[in-house]
Amino acid sequence: MAVSFSDPEDAFVFVNFGGDGENEAVLDRRTGKIYCRSFFGVRTIFNRKGAYARFKDLLARRRLLDGWHEFSDKAEKAALREWAAENGVELTD
């Protein structure tokens, strides 16, 4: 089964957007389709004041935000490629 890299990447971002255990994503190995689910509803995400926003503000003030985005992007891609390899999922791009 081959899956476009962007599909599990989008699912990864979705799962990590919520708090621990709030969001989940599951790959159907038969069809290659990814199903995403939020246990608390997406609207609750926007009701919270988060530490991540303050962290990003700090990085921006220190002119480190671009570096953080580059680091985060590389780490996410590496983790997804490792997950795909461990689970027998062939990525096409």
- End-to-end separation in angstroms reads 13 Å
User: Which segments are poorly predicted (pLDDT under 50) over 5 or more consecutive residues?
Assistant: none
Helix content: 40-55%
What's the count of strands? 4
Tell me the strand percentage band: 15-25%
Mass-distribution shape: flat
Strand-pairing-aware structural class: alpha+beta
- How confident overall, as mean pLDDT? 84
* Cα radius of gyration in angstroms: 15 Å
Q: Main sheet, how many strands, which sense, barrel?
A: 2 strands, parallel
Give, in order, the helices and strands: EHEEHHHE
If helices are DSSP runs of H or I spanning 4 or more residues, what is the number of helices? 4
Query: Looking across the biggest beta sheet, what order are the strands in?
Result: 1-4
Can you describe this structure in just a few lines?
This protein is an alpha+beta fold and 93 residues long. The protein has helices spanning 6-17, 42-47, 51-61, 65-86; strands at 2-3, 23-27, 34-38, 90-91.
How would you explain this protein's 3D organization?
The protein has helices spanning 6-17, 42-47, 51-61, 65-86; strands at residues 2-3, 23-27, 34-38, 90-91. The protein is an alpha+beta fold and 93 residues long. The strands form 2 sheets. Strands 1-4 form a two-stranded parallel ribbon. Strand 2 (23-27) and strand 3 form a beta hairpin. The longest helix is centred in the last third of the chain and has 22 residues, at 65-86.
List the helices and strands and how they pair.
Elements: E1 2-3, H1 6-17, E2 23-27, E3 34-38, H2 42-47, H3 51-61, H4 65-86, E4 90-91
Parallel strand pairs: 1-4
Antiparallel strand pairs: 2-3
